[in-house]
Amino acid sequence: MKVLVLFGSPRKKHTYELTKAFIEGLEKDTEVEFIDTPKLNISHCMGCNYCLKEMKCFIKDDMEDILNKIEEADIIVLSSPVYFGTVTSYLKVLIDRCQPLYNKRFVLKVEDKVKKKGFLIFTAGGKNKRMIDSMNLVAKFFMLSCGAELVDTIYCLNTDDNGLDKEVLQRAHMSAKSIL
Ligand SMILES: Cc1cc2nc3c(=O)[nH]c(=O)nc-3n(C[C@H](O)[C@H](O)[C@H](O)COP(=O)(O)O)c2cc1C
Q1: Could you tell me which residue ranges the NADPH-dependent FMN reductase-like domain spans (predicted)?
Q2: 30 lines ligand 1 (CB under 6 A)
Q3: Which residue has the least CA distance to atom 8 on ligand 1?
Q4: Residue 77 C-alpha to ligand 1 middle, in angstroms?
Q5: Is the distance from the beta carbon of residue 81 to the nearest atom of ligand 1 less than 6 Å?
């Protein structure tokens, strides 16, 4: 089983700790690839629609590799702090470049024989749950484009005042444990 973690924080703090708790809950023989997206070189989508005809992107950068990794993964984990009501820009740039995956499934209508599983891991500095709802809109659409069925959303609010609570770390661990 291949797990691809797309990690979107420029810091190794709250979101990282929560993601680590999830990874530690995975079965020992699981192949986990952790992608530190702030370290990647990914250009912005230019909306040229090349991918509508060719089903691939003409831009040559780290995204070529990421698109292959997404297609090969059994489980995709999208992990991000809330930045201005959505995922960080590192992840948003990556998500926008997933248009070839969207086209494959929703324009060419290529059906996935096996559905991937999707997990979301979010942290927010404030207490407002609507931040997570807002993240979910982008993240669910991303999972759909990857051919992944969303299994669980693990999140922690109010990190700026309280940090991560033990319960949410335990929840992340148990969520990974529940994967068959
Ligand atoms: C640029 C920026 C924008 C942020 N925007 C929000 C926001 O819209 N809503 C919120 O609740 N917290 C916001 N925060 C707080 C972070 O979501 C919070 O501190 C998060 O847990 C940081 O995760 P990290 O420790 O993994 O970097 C923002 C933080 C930064 C740096």
Answers
A1: 1-130
A2: no
A3: 84
A4: 19
A5: yes
pLDDT in tens, 51-79: 998 889 999 999 999 999 999 999 999 99
User: How much is the mean pLDDT over the chain?
Assistant: 96
Is 2-177 assigned to CATH 3.40.50.360? yes
Nearest C-alpha neighbor of 20 from the set 170, 149, 180: 170
Rounded CA separation 8/155 (Å): 14
Testing ligand 1's pocket by substitution, the residue of 37, 83, 162 carrying the most ligand atoms inside 8 A of its CB is 83
Assign residue 154 a region: left if phi > 0, alpha if psi is -120 to 50, beta otherwise? beta
Q: Strands across the sheet with 31-36, in order?
A: 31-36, 2-7, 75-81, 116-123, 148-156
